[in-house]
Backbone:
């Protein structure tokens, strides 16, 4: 049960919003849910930062597209556990991505 933050009276659901019958204050329950969803989303972004191709260690690898000698890379484990992980490079200049095998 929700109570009006303005006057403390009981709030009743009315067409998707909570409405105070005493002073007319309304609170959208949809808005509340949206806010919670956004918070979860931003938390996930923080957790997944390491998987973003633009964020990673920079290495001296020459881009085959533009010749820039700086690229970020991340490791991608291949299907077979025996093989070395594939390195995915992303050019810091033109964002071209390519992979290299050891
Ligand atoms: Zn009220
Ligand atoms: Zn490039």
Residues:
């Amino acid at each position: 049960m929700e109570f009006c933050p303005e006057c403390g009276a009981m709030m009743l659901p009315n067409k998707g919003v909570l409405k105070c019958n005493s002073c007319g204050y309304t609170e959208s329950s949809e808005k509340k849910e949206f806010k919670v969803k956004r918070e979860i989303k931003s938390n996930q972004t923080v957790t997944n930062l390491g998987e973003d191709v633009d964020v990673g260690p920079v290495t001296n690898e020459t881009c085959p597209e533009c010749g820039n000698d700086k690229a970020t890379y991340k490791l991608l484990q291949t299907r077979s556990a025996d093989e070395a992980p594939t390195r995915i490079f992303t050019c810091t200049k033109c964002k071209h991505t390519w992979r290299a095998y050891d």
